[in-house]
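Quick look at the format.
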Amino acid sequence: MYTKGEWYVEDRHTSLVVLCIPEGKDSPIVIADLDTSDCTLLEDEANANLIAAAPKMYEALKELKEVCDTLAETEPDTELPLALALAICGGKEALAKADGGK
């Protein structure tokens, strides 16, 4: 579970802040506040953008998992290319970690 709404990055000069306006609310909340003195600006921006993109990536992985699970149930004899099978395993691991697993 995570805060639903559009996540975005705002530059506050001494930090990059990932904000979200939760569904049904009018004002943003802080998801993450990244101190920009620790890394290079490019790393800080990349980290902030990755955090802001997390909900969309999570939802995309969930959809991919559902499609793969459906395919496995309806077409059990279908062999997936190794690279795709490995990517699916990695996606499942990422979803499990995002859902609080290891």
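Next, a different chain entirely:
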Amino acid sequence: MAALYAGWGFSEPFYREEVFRAFGARDVPEFIDFFWDTFFLKCDANDLLAQMWTWWHNDLGDHPRFGGDFDAALASIRARTITSCRPRRTPTSRPSTRSTRQAGSRTPSAG
């Protein structure tokens, strides 16, 4: 669980720019052991299982109202959305098109 979450818990630049060294780790595997394993060992195992079940089975469109239509489910959300992509100086730099698409499919909330 810790190794999986390590990729989600911090950004790509966190690892690429080796910010993990500020935590006293020499490399990424040591950081996972030092930080993420320690974090997850404190968690209740049943809570972690429930969280994993939610990740594996989460399908926003899997609801009678949307009949499996993910885009319709996204469009039904009424929330303000900010999509931010900071400029990067790497060959892999590009805007987060998935986030932008998902944010664009939402109807702005009133107020």
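The mean pLDDT is 78.

See the schema section for token definitions.
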